Each structure stands twice: as structure tokens, then as C-alpha cells.
Amino acid sequence: MTGVIDRLKGGLIVSCQALPHEPMHGAGHMAAMAAAALEGGAAGIRANSPQDIRAIRARVAVPIIGLHKVEYADSPVYITPTIREVAEVVDAGADIVAVDATERLRPGGQTLKQFFAEAKARFPGMLFMADVSTYEEGIAAIGMGFDLISTTMSGYTPHSAQRQEPDLELVGKLAAAAAGAAPIVAEGRIETPDQLREAFELGAFAAVVGSAITRPQLIARRFASAIPDSAGRKP
């Protein structure tokens, strides 16, 4: 296990991402968010786009899990879907590249196995995280040699169980099956400290939390929606 992965063990990874239509979108905002997360105890950062990764790299020294979300017309895969995006993430300074590792075909009809073999040949010293949606995909990713397995995509593919809560069952099953072969990272809809604690109790190596920490508009909405009608606020 590499030093970079060792630094994430038992740690909180904060996902600092904002889409173009969101108020916090922009590399400067995400770099500040990453710095704030580090002050709060984050062991690592997950970030989207070369621009954000570069800006965050300039502000923090913790491991960065980088990805690049790009949509292609011929594939539903959008998390670092081609070698081009892998190269951009590596060049931006990420320590680990996160990729969609679901069973779906990538742009150009490429399979995950073909893509991963090409990525490893092109970037032999790079670490790769497999974002999976099912137990079977996780086991397949372990067999392919991914450095970390994350439950990121559970509930976001047609063939995975749709849910509002984090898929902690999947975390536990993969952690038991991996038996040290690959670190299992809990990710996806973790909104409370109790859910985070349970993920670690089930065997998670590390855990990623995003919106519950880094999307102020969603945090504010949760509080605003809790105000009773009896408070008399006018619309």
C-alpha cells in the first residue's frame, strides 16, 4: 500500500465540487472550500475538473482524488470517461484518479477492462479509484487491480438499488469480500456523523462526504425547511 493511500486510512475525504449552475462554482471557491475542510480535519479532498484540482493543489498538501466529469453522446459514463480526461487529471496534480467503474460501456464502445488496461499502461505509477454501483462491479474492479474501490455510483445506475440513504450494506459486503485486497471507500449520500461512523464500523477504509459539507445552498435549505409554519415567516 502506497504512502498516499496510507494517509487516507481511517480518514474523512471531503468532496469539493460545484456544478456550473451552482453559486459556489469556480476553482477559487473550491480551493477555499478545500482549505476549510482541511482545517476541519479532512484527510483528503475529492475534486472535479483540471481547473479545480490545480487550484486546490496550490492550497492543500493532503491527497487529492481527482476526476473530470465530461458527457459524451454515445455513453452514460461521465466520471473520467476516456484516457483524455485521465491525462488531464494527472497533469493537474491529482494523487489518485477516480473513474466510473460500472459495467456500462464507455465512449466509443470501450469496456472498463480495455480502458483500465490502457490507463495503467499510459500512467504506470498512477493510483486509480473505481467508482462502482454494485457488489459485482466492486469485485470485478478488485480483480482488475484498482487501488481503491468506492461505492460512489450506488443508486445512480439503472442496475443498482435506488435509495435515498447511503448504501452501507454494499460498503460492508465489499469490505468483507476484499479482505485487505483493496481499500473500500464509503461514498454516496452520507449526510450525518452517525452514518459516517457506521460506515467505518462496517469496514470502510475511508469515507467521502460531499454535499452535506460543501453545498451551502443544500445545508441552508435543510435548516430553512425545519422552521415551523407557526413561526409566521412571510413567503
Automatic annotation (TrEMBL):
Catalytic activity: an N-acyl-D-glucosamine 6-phosphate = an N-acyl-D-mannosamine 6-phosphate
Gene3D superfamilies the record matches: Aldolase class I (3.20.20.70)
Pathway note: Amino-sugar metabolism; N-acetylneuraminate degradation; D-fructose 6-phosphate from N-acetylneuraminate: step 3/5
Enzyme class: isomerase
InterPro entries: Aldolase_TIM (IPR013785), NanE (IPR007260), RibuloseP-bd_barrel (IPR011060)
Record-level GO BP terms: carbohydrate metabolic process; N-acetylmannosamine catabolic process; N-acetylneuraminate catabolic process
Function of the protein: Converts N-acetylmannosamine-6-phosphate (ManNAc-6-P) to N-acetylglucosamine-6-phosphate (GlcNAc-6-P).
Family: Belongs to the NanE family.
PANTHER family: N-ACETYLMANNOSAMINE-6-PHOSPHATE 2-EPIMERASE-RELATED
Name of this protein: Putative N-acetylmannosamine-6-phosphate 2-epimerase
Source organism phylogeny: Bacteria, Bacillati, Bacillota, Bacilli, Bacillales
